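Anyone up for a design puzzle?
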């Protein structure tokens, strides 16, 4: 994965991981990237849950990214799907 400006901001690490999962060309790696991205998104959602600032737009972006990853999860081949570990 290439490094982007998002890696410099811990609140946006989920973005890089989500992007890497959605645009991974190696079918074997897709199954590994999806759970990592989902975990990062859920961690950010938890951070925002206790935040006192307005974050409704970010909530929507996070929700959209999570839905995109879940759709991707449903599109991978059975062999790739066996690599994907469920979230815990």
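Challenge accepted. My sequence:
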């Amino acid at each position: 994965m290439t490094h982007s400006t998002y890696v410099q901001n811990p609140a946006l690490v989920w973005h890089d991981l989500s992007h890497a999962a959605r645009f991974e060309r190696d079918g074997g790696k897709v199954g590994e990237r999806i759970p990592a991205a989902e975990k990062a998104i859920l961690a950010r959602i938890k951070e925002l849950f206790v935040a006192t600032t307005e974050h409704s737009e970010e909530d929507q972006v996070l929700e959209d990214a999570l839905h995109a990853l879940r759709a991707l999860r449903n599109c991978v081949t059975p062999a790739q799907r066996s690599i994907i570990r469920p979230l815990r």
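A detail worth pointing out: The chain has four helices and no strands.
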